[in-house]
Write a structure and sequence with these properties.
By secondary structure, the protein is an alpha/beta fold. It folds into two domains: about 130 residues, Aspartate Aminotransferase, domain 1 (Alpha-Beta Complex); about 250 residues, Aspartate Aminotransferase, domain 2, CATH 3.40.640.10. The structure holds pyridoxal-5'-phosphate. Pyridoxal-5'-phosphate binds next to helix 4.
Length: about 400
């Protein structure tokens, strides 16, 4: 008899986006012709930078000629891309990362989801609340979380986000082994200061723990005082892995390219306390289960680091940041407390009421779709997330609509 992995039965069905779609569809049926503006999604809306498209086309042409055609590439990614990443994203900012510590992949979602495979089942895991759901669900599937009761898994240490801590979690009171952090944060838009990040790195060093640092939104950081990489913090090379993606940086959500940094100095322990290299383990996992990102996609990603690529990516992010600034300004002017939107594409708004009630109000009165914060965890209750991924014209219209509706 074929049996299933019963950990899957512990997963909580995510009704968030289907519930949103259902409510929006019902509203549309009842209000035909009424314009709806979607500021709920976490997907980019603007085209790839022209220089990426050019490199993409050229690489496709290479694939059309026997003399330049390429079959399987290195599982870890082509050196031409890993060298650019190491030099531009890390060494240029004083972070000591070399090309052979970078693993190219088809997404930070897969990487942040797959990484848990190389750790023991009975470790203590700390996960923020509210959170990008992949960290939690992949640990549920693996059997690390225990039972689900009253909105929480009993073996997870939840790192609670509140207004008081600015949605930057406090250090755990009891020791934990694996810590998920994400800055700039999805869903809250919160950023972490160098000092706070240093305290996490010190915590990990003292407790022989490991930080999984998701920096998928790093390109939105405009405040130079904020760290863009965990490796800007001294001592992080021994206790942190970092996840990055071209998705939000350069519009690659549909093209797929990302990378994970696993420093050679990161070690973890077996049951006898003996040290093992995480680089060796991840290399083994990655090359066994993954066959590399396509050559044209890696060439398109490489173009991000050219002079024109850098300028075009900056313009792309500036565009979304202008949207974010407008959303933040208008929501604040209506008297709401807001977080994010300054070094992040997300604005986290305290609705001062149930998240779904606020969602319904914005939809019914202004035709604007947001995301209820309660869908990201218990601590998200009372908040909504507004996304800056849309056209400036639509954001202007949405904000005018919200202003009129809420002033009534
Ligand atoms: N990490 C965070 C925090 C995200 O919000 C997302 C996408 O929304 C991802 C990772 C996934 O990125 P990718 O498109 O590279 O899979």
């Amino acid at each position: 008899m074929i049996r299933i992995n019963e950990n899957y039965l512990k997963l909580q069905a995510s009704y968030l986006f289907s519930d949103i779609a259902r409510r929006v569809a019902a509203f549309q049926r009842e209000n035909p012709g009424r314009e709806i503006i979607r500021l709920g999604i976490g997907d980019v809306t603007r085209a790839l930078p022209p220089t990426c498209i050019k490199a993409f086309h050229q690489a496709v042409d290479e694939m059309a000629d026997d003399r330049t055609f390429r079959g399987y590439g290195p599982e870890q990614g082509y050196l031409f891309l890993r060298e650019k990443i190491a030099a531009e994203d890390f060494q240029a900012r004083g972070a000591d990362i070399s090309p052979d510590e970078i693993f190219i992949s088809d997404g930070a979602k897969c990487d942040t989801g797959n990484i848990q495979e190389i750790f023991a089942i009975d470790i203590e895991i700390a996960i923020p609340d509210p959170v990008y759901p992949v960290y939690l669900d992949t640990n549920v599937m693996a059997g690390r979380t225990g039972k689900y009761k009253d909105g929480r898994y009993d073996k997870i240490r939840y790192l609670e986000g509140t207004w008081e801590n600015g949605f930057v979690p406090d250090l755990p009171e009891e020791p934990v082994d694996l810590i998920y952090l994400c800055f700039p944060n999805n869903p809250t838009g919160a950023t972490i200061t160098r000092d706070r990040l240093r305290s996490w790195v010190e915590y990990a060093r003292e407790n022989r723990a490991l930080i999984l640092y998701d920096a998928a939104y790093e390109a939105f950081i405009r405040d130079d005082a904020l760290p863009r990489s965990v490796y800007e913090i001294e001592g992080a090379r021994e206790v942190a892995l970092e996840f990055r993606s071209f998705s939000k940086t350069a519009g690659f959500t549909g093209t797929r390219c990302a990378y994970t940094v696993v420093p050679r100095t990161c070690e973890a322990y077996d049951r006898n306390g003996q040290k093992h290299s995480l680089h060796a383990l991840w290399n083994r996992r990655h090359s066994t289960k993954f066959n590399g990102v396509s050559y044209p996609v890696q060439k398109a990603a490489e173009a991000v680091y050219s002079k024109e690529g850098k300028a075009q990516v900056k313009e792309l992010i500036d565009y979304y940041l202008r949207n974010a600034a407008l959303i933040r300004k208008e929501m604040c002017s209506l008297g709401f407390q807001c977080l994010g939107g300054e070094n992040s594409p997300y604005i986290w708004v305290d609705g001062r009421m149930d998240s779904w009630r606020f969602f319904d109000r914005l939809l019914e009165k202004a035709g604007v779709v947001c995301t209820p914060g309660s869908g990201f965890g218990k601590c998200g209750q009372g908040f909504i997330r507004i996304s800056a991924f849309n056209s400036f014209e639509n954001v202007q219209k949405a904000m005018a609509g919200i202003k009129m509706a809420l002033a009534e």
